[in-house]
C-alpha cells in the first residue's frame, strides 16, 4: 500500500487512520496501516483547502477542552468561559494534499449565544457536544443542532454528536447515556463519539475522522468534479486501504466490535 502513496515530504506523523474507514476501524488500525493523514510540512501550511467546523453545546460541557486536547495536547481543570467564539486552525496533509480544519469554539453561555451564532454560517461540519455526566446537556443537544443548522445547508453539512467527560461517568450511567445518545445520533443522522479530554481517550481519533470526512466532502469532491488525476489516485489508494482493512478485520474478528 505504501508504494502507491503519492510522494510526501516526511514530517511528524500524527495519524495512521486511512481515509473513509469507520469509527470502529479507526480504533483498530493504529498499528496496521501506513500513514494517510500527516501534519503538514512547513511549506504546505499556506494551502487554501479549508473546512469550517463549528463546535456547539451547553455551557461547560467541555468544548474548549476537547479542542485544546487535540490542537495543543493540553488539559485545564479550571473552567474559563468562552466569550463569543474562539478559533483554532489545524493543518493536515491527506494523501499528499494540504488540508486545513478551522475549528470554531463557540460559547455555551446564554448571554454570548447571539454573538456565537453569527459565526455558524458556511460550516462543512457541526460538532454538537454534550457532557456524558449531565443528562440535560444531551436533552439540549437537539436545540443546539437546530440552531447551528439554520444558516447551513442540511444536505451537505456533516454532523457529529460528541459525549465528553467519559472519565467522570459511572459505567451504568455511561451505558444509559450512550444508549440515549446513539438513539439521538441515528435520528439526526450524526456520527456519535464518546471522548475524554482529561485522559485524551478517543480525542485524536475523533478529529482525524472529522478531517477525513470533511476532506472527502470538500477537497476530494472538488478534485473529482474537475476530474483531476490527483482525485483518481486518491480514490485508488483509498480503495486499496479498504481491501486491506477487510483482510485486517477478518484476521482480527475477535477483537473488533
Ligand atoms: N473530568 C473531565 N472534566 C472535563 C473534561 N472536559 C472538560 N472538563 C472540565 O469541564 C469544565 C468546562 O470545560 P470547557 O472546555 O471550558 O467547557 P466549554 O463547553 O468550552 O464551556 P463554555 O465556554 O462556557 O461554553 C472545565 O472545568 C474542564 O476542566 C473531561 O473530559 N473530563
Automatic annotation (TrEMBL):
<dbReference type="InterPro" id="IPR050227">
    <property type="entry name" value="Rab"/>
</dbReference>
<dbReference type="InterPro" id="IPR027417">
    <property type="entry name" value="P-loop_NTPase"/>
</dbReference>
<protein>
    <submittedName>
        <fullName>Ras-related protein Rab-34</fullName>
    </submittedName>
</protein>
<dbReference type="Pfam" id="PF00071">
    <property type="entry name" value="Ras"/>
</dbReference>
<dbReference type="InterPro" id="IPR005225">
    <property type="entry name" value="Small_GTP-bd"/>
</dbReference>
<dbReference type="GO" id="GO:0005525">
    <property type="term" value="F:GTP binding"/>
</dbReference>
<keyword id="KW-0342">GTP-binding</keyword>
<dbReference type="InterPro" id="IPR001806">
    <property type="entry name" value="Small_GTPase"/>
</dbReference>
<dbReference type="GO" id="GO:0003924">
    <property type="term" value="F:GTPase activity"/>
</dbReference>
<keyword id="KW-0547">Nucleotide-binding</keyword>
Amino acid at each position: 500500500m505504501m508504494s502507491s502513496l503519492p510522494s510526501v515530504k516526511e514530517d511528524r506523523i500524527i495519524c495512521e487512520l486511512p481515509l473513509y474507514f469507520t469509527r470502529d476501524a479507526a480504533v483498530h488500525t493504529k498499528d496496521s496501516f501506513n500513514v494517510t493523514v500527516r501534519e503538514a510540512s512547513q511549506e504546505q501550511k499556506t494551502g487554501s483547502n479549508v473546512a469550517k467546523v463549528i463546535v456547539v453545546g451547553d455551557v461547560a460541557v467541555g468544548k474548549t477542552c476537547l479542542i485544546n486536547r487535540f490542537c495543543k495536547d493540553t488539559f485545564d481543570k479550571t473552567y474559563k468561559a468562552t466569550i463569543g467564539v474562539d478559533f483554532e486552525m489545524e493543518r493536515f496533509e491527506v494523501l499528499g494534499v494540504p488540508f486545513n480544519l478551522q475549528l470554531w469554539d463557540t460559547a455555551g453561555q446564554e448571554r454570548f449565544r447571539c454573538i456565537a451564532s453569527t459565526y455558524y454560517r458556511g460550516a462543512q461540519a457541526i460538532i454538537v457536544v454534550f457532557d456524558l455526566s449531565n443528562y440535560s446537556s444531551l436533552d439540549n443537544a437537539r436545540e443546539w443542532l437546530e440552531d447551528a443548522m439554520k444558516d447551513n445547508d442540511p444536505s451537505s453539512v456533516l454532523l457529529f454528536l460528541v459525549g465528553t467527560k467519559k472519565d467522570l461517568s459511572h459505567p451504568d450511567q455511561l451505558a444509559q447515556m450512550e444508549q440515549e445518545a446513539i438513539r439521538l445520533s441515528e435520528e439526526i443522522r450524526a456520527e456519535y463519539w464518546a471522548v475524554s479530554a482529561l485522559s485524551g481517550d478517543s480525542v485524536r481519533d475523533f478529529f482525524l475522522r472529522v478531517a477525513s470526512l470533511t476532506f472527502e466532502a470538500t477537497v476530494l469532491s472538488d478534485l473529482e468534479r474537475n476530474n483531476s488525476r490527483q482525485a483518481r489516485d486518491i480514490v485508488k489508494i483509498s480503495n486499496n486501504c479498504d481491501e486491506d482493512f477487510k483482510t485486517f478485520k477478518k484476521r482480527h474478528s475477535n477483537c473488533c466490535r
